[in-house]
What does this fold into?
Amino acid sequence: MKTSILDNITFRLLATAAAFVAWWLLYRNLAALAGWLTYFAGGLVRGSRLGVAVEFFVFEAPKVLLLLALVVFGVGIVRTFFTPERTRRLLAGRRESAGNVLAALLGTVTPFCSCSAVPLFIGFVTAGVPLGVTFSFLISAPMVNEVALVLLFGMFGWKVASLYLGTGLAVAIVAGWTLGRLRLERHVEPWVYENAAGTNEDEAATPAMSWGERLRAGVVAVREIVGRVWLYVLLGIAVGAGIHGYVPENFMASIMGRGAWWSVLLAVVIGMPMYSNAAGIIPIVQALLGKGAALGTVLAFMMSVIGLSLPEAIILRQVLKPRLIATFFGVVAGGILLVGYLFNLVL
It folds into this structure.
């Protein structure tokens, strides 16, 4: 029996290693492959608007999907360590200042999006996690997104990725702390606190998982998550390709450049009604930067799309009263605006 288990783990480790080698070889040769498909096989004219747009799409589509598959595989493994119950226990009973920092950090490594907002919010509040700490987690989890972080690193390098990580964490920590100081608990729907007694029961211990099971969880995550978002990824890249090939640089620089004082505010206002995951918005971010948009403005746009959205507000309405939702969005939007203006000023 033990030999069979070891053989199974060994097979999965070897299969994972072989898949990674194939991934790396394909990833390294994407630029040459995109050029060949666009100009030799496709017969398009090098330097033409259509050629530039098609080459962008043919290069970025497999690149983003490959990076996404790799990141989601890792997230699937991380998910086996950070369940909602374990995360809740880590945050319960923390002092607000330390809790805000810990909650924001946990939000970057736990694969919860705004779709999980209601059950997570209820679980955290009923477990005794302070309201401000809960908000730090809810801001960080979707906005400081591990998918976005790795895609930014792959496309722009460690400096832009580090800026995104640092500013996102700062917004989550400061906004959560600010919301905690406002003492808005009375604007949480009463039934959330009424259910507190029913959620404090001892939870059954989760059996330890073997590494073979963790690797399988990573594969399952790739199949489920990439299978669900690949179309949005391709749509985002198509939009980015259109911007890259056809939108004049002077136009984007005029409305999203650092010279326009209202550009950051406009970017946040445009981004808030939108809803997209990180994988879908990053190619658009790349195209905007390539056309002369300012980094701070683009970061503000990306954070508002990922971290603030109308669907999230609708979901949160089940547990929060309108005033608290408005305050939550206002505080986070203010932090994003500050980030955008700061980076446009210093970079």
User: Anything to note?
Assistant: The chain has two domains: 1-79+210-245, 96-202+247-347. The two ends are 60 Å apart (CA to CA). Residues 213 and 306 are 31 Å apart (CA to CA). Residues 1-79+210-245 form one domain.
